[in-house]
Write a structure and sequence with these properties.
The complex is a heterodimer. Chain A is an alpha+beta fold. Chain A is built from 4 helices and 11 strands; from the N terminus they run αβααβββββαβββββ. The chains are: A alpha+beta, B mainly beta. The interface between A and B is large, with 56 and 75 residues.
Chain lengths: 203, 290
């Protein structure tokens, strides 16, 4: 009899304590304690120069760069007739920042919608009656379209731009796009597009 | 427990003392000085470099639109998005959109040469689409003819971050007396360019509203040491982030009219919380479809 009284009172006490514990835990978890460590960080916007700097690039996980460029960076007056294909020589260079990456395989194929050119349809008096958009990236292609580069190697490829017959006279500046790293996989190798070509479409 | 706390504090101190490979940049900008609110999924700015001799720039002069993202409940997600138009020393202009999470980045985008110091205007737009895709668009008017006929070249890049929106206005960072400015538009450089031969013009600095109009509201200046733009709390740690990190001393701003800023060096530092304009209004960014 005495034993069972001790058992029941101990069980009751434990139950009360458990309930109290749960309640206090709930209270504690609700209370917001201020952070004990405060850290400020400055964000310096990246520039192409940061990607071309090996130390800086490696610090953000960039193992190398693919430089897409043309001598003099600014190519003037590439005139093409609507309906024809414009051919532009472009240089591609691979620079590895990681000694374990000596070779890269890249494909050169533009992503639709990356570069677009707006053009105006005008009436006989030259007034704009409508604007349409030309998806430049879907017209841009490269030959060869897949290349293998050793670190430090530069290769010339031909960028082609096929102009639809329906496009009116137009002048605009065009950049490149569409470098994709096929191999090695799982590492970040950053393309840098570093040229501009002036395209003039005539009829 | 005490030991764990002590270890955490020592670890945080150690991490804070690791040398930063990226040197802080000089920065000064403007921010919308109203209470925190949400943009209707997009923000915009326009910029160019009038009367600028690029050779005075040691490396790059950056015209930057910066905005904090949110994931839920209008609380900053710790994503920072930047539309960055960079003038290089050789006169080329690069579009380099950027996204930072909790202060860190692996470049999600490639820098693309899109224009020159003589280009008429560059528009940079940041858009959040349903599903958390962030779109960065640049509308480039390289010639007067392109400008006159409103026929820009458009560059579009996207990245999935999961954010649901963008913030503007200000809020005090919890547990501090620091003011976070969630939408900023300014100039940045790795070097202090103490030459009067550069200008950065910015206009149409705006957020998109629920009424489907682009809006500007009263704005003030902010220097790089105070340019807090987003923050997050993880356990007993509070992290907050600022643009650039250094004051762009010697740089001032002319305000030709509301929502127009012409940054230049003349030896006078504009400083913090200088009133840029006190009016609110709507703007119509030039590119069709922005």
């Amino acid at each position: 009899m005495k034993r069972s009284r001790i058992f029941y009172s101990t069980t009751f006490l434990l139950f009360v304590l458990a309930a109290l514990n749960l309640y206090s835990f709930k209270l504690l978890s609700k209370s917001e304690s201020p952070p004990q460590v405060m850290t400020v960080k400055s964000i310096s916007s990246l520039t192409p120069g940061d990607l071309l700097n090996k130390t800086t690039a490696l610090s953000i996980g960039i193992k190398g760069v693919i430089l897409v460029y043309a001598p003099g960076w600014r190519l003037a007056n590439y005139t093409v007739k609507a309906g024809d294909t414009l051919m532009i020589p472009v240089l591609i260079q691979f620079r590895s920042y990681d000694t374990s990456i000596q070779e890269v395989i890249i494909s050169l194929s533009s992503n639709p919608g990356e570069i677009e050119q707006v053009y105006a349809i005008t009436d006989a008096n030259g007034n704009v009656i409508e604007r349409q958009t030309l998806d430049i990236s879907s017209l841009e292609s490269y030959s060869p379209s897949t290349i293998t580069l050793q670190t430090g190697e530069t290769m010339q490829v031909t960028m082609s731009l096929t102009i639809p017959q329906t496009i009116p006279d137009l002048a605009f500046y065009l950049s490149a796009c569409g470098v994709k790293i096929l191999w090695p996989s799982g590492v970040t190798i950053a393309p840098i597009y570093d040229f501009l070509v002036e395209v003039v479409i005539v009829h | 427990m005490k030991e764990v706390k002590l270890f955490a504090i020592i670890l945080a101190f150690y991490l804070a003392t690791i040398p930063n490979v990226f040197a802080d940049h000089y920065y000064v900008g403007g921010y919308f000085a109203v209470s925190k609110s949400t943009a209707n999924k997009k923000v915009i700015f326009a910029t160019n470099f009038p009367n600028t001799t690029p050779s005075v720039i040691p490396s790059y002069l950056q015209s930057v639109l910066s905005v904090a993202g949110w994931y839920s409940g209008n609380t900053p997600s710790a994503w920072l998005y930047q539309s960055d138009i960079e003038l290089a020393k050789n006169g080329s202009v690069i579009f380099f959109p950027q996204a930072y999470y909790q202060g860190g980045t692996t470049p999600h985008f490639s820098p693309v040469l899109v224009g020159t110091v003589s280009s008429v205007m560059f528009y940079g737009e940041i858009v959040v689409q349903t599903g958390g895709n962030i779109f960065f668009k640049a509308f480039v008017y390289n010639t007067q003819s392109q400008w006159n006929s409103n026929t820009p070249t458009i560059y579009t890049y996207s990245y999935l971050t999961g954010d649901n929106g963008l913030l503007y206005g200000t809020e005090t960072i919890p547990y501090t007396n620091l003011v976070c400015k969630y939408l900023q538009c300014g100039v940045e450089s790795a070097q202090l360019i103490s030459s009067s031969q550069w200008r950065v013009f910015q206009k149409d600095f705006a957020y998109y509203g629920g009424d489907l109009n682009w809006h500007y509201v009263p704005a003030k200046s902010v220097e790089g040491t105070s340019s807090y733009i987003t923050w997050y709390i993880s356990g007993s740690y509070l992290y907050y982030f600022r643009v650039g990190g250094l004051d762009f001393t010697g740089v001032t701003v002319e305000i030709p009219s509301s929502d127009n800023m012409k940054w230049k060096w003349n030896g006078t530092t504009i400083g913090n919380d200088f009133s840029l304009w006190t009016t609110s209004g709507t703007v119509s960014p030039y590119p069709t479809g922005a």
